[in-house]
Write a structure and sequence with these properties.
The protein has one domain: TIM Barrel. 37% of the residues lie in helices and 15% in strands. It is built from 10 helices and 10 strands. The protein has an 8-stranded parallel beta barrel with strand order 3-4-5-6-7-8-9-10, surrounded by 6 helices. A two-stranded antiparallel sheet has the order 1-2.
Length: 331
């Protein structure tokens, strides 16, 4: 049976925020493909998650050329979904991809060179069965490639119609400021900056958030639950089958320290008073930040996605709640 999205998908509670100074709006919550959509995962489960997301107002789908595992398989699976189920709704979607991390063997399969970026966008479009992506990111700053080379490649990708907008991810502040100015002068301003941001990791508050706001650039936060640490999943050890227990994942068991677990237990007390789970409060805290355009979540099940979506119904914090959260973070 052909997929027919819910007719009321835009009236079920999802809000949308303008992305910087552009005319683009992003949903408060976006769906990321870093995990759970690769070749090692169930395609049918991933498809059901994407359908549920779209049915509930999520229009922003975040990918990268190396998402999987194996590399490229998340884009391939998404491409099959687009071809078989979502082709008619392409204009209702913001689809992003990235390049810059290791992707293929040899000296040209990594980094920010023009050769790598130009080859990567072509490969990504082919895997995803797309004529263009809405946003193409430089996935990281590459110190071995002149920054002008990386940025000019991004500009040319837009001018050739392979992407509509440019994004940057995980850039040190001095390089980010330079990139903002270069891209603006080239007539292709940076639409969005993406970085890790959550209750545990707040490093972008030092510089990047302010710089993005001053440049009229939106901010998208990834890893809002710190790879699952900002849930109750690891409060009593590392469960079998969890992300920290899987050998291919980014989260390693040694990263889950007793100090972090103590903070999460304290966060849980505040969340319970708000009638939220830890994860819902962590997402709500990010959504409440006016500097944040959208928060990228991952989901292994529809139930996880449902729980995370409930965070948009309660993202207002009183002064005492915010003070208590800050105290826990500082301790």
């Amino acid at each position: 049976m052909d997929y027919l999205p819910h007719i009321d998908r835009y009236t079920q509670g999802m809000d949308y925020r303008k992305c910087g100074n552009s005319g683009i709006k992003l949903p408060l919550i976006s769906l990321g493909f870093w995990h759970n959509f690769g070749g090692v995962d169930s395609y049918e489960n991933g498809l059901n998650i994407v359908k549920y997301a779209f049915d509930h107002g999520i229009t922003h789908f975040d990918l990268a050329n190396n998402y999987g595992p194996p590399f490229g398989s998340a884009e391939e699976n998404f491409g099959k979904m687009m071809k078989d189920h979502f082709r008619a709704y392409r204009d209702e979607m913001i689809i992003t991809t990235k390049a810059g991390h290791h992707m293929w063997n040899g000296p040209y399969g990594d980094g920010g060179s023009r050769k790598n970026l130009m080859a990567s966008i072509d490969h990504s479009l082919k895997r995803m069965n797309l004529e263009y992506v809405d946003i193409f990111y430089s996935h990281r700053y590459d110190a071995e490639t002149p920054l002008d080379e990386t940025l000019q490649a991004l500009v040319d990708i837009v001018k050739r119609g392979k992407a509509l907008y440019v994004g940057l991810s995980k850039y040190p502040i001095d390089k980010l400021l330079y990139a903002f100015e270069f891209l603006k002068n080239a007539g292709t301003p940076c639409l969005v900056y993406q970085d890790r941001y959550n209750l545990i990791d707040r490093h972008i508050e030092n510089y990047q958030l302010k710089a993005a706001a001053a440049n009229g650039t939106g901010v998208v936060a990834f890893s809002p639950l710190a790879q699952g640490m900002l849930t109750d999943k690891y409060l009593h050890g590392i469960p079998e089958g969890s992300r920290a227990a899987r050998p291919e994942g980014y989260l390693k068991s040694e990263m889950i320290t007793s100090e972090i677990i103590d903070k999460v237990r304290c966060f849980r007390k505040i969340a319970q008073q708000r009638e939220q789970s830890i994860s819902q409060m962590a997402l709500s805290w990010l959504i409440a930040r006016p500097e944040v355009t959208s928060v990228i979540i991952g989901a292994r099940t529809i139930e996880q996605l449902q729980e995370n979506l409930r965070s948009i119904s309660n993202y207002h914090f009183d002064t005492q709640e915010l003070a208590n959260i800050e105290q826990i973070i500082r301790e």
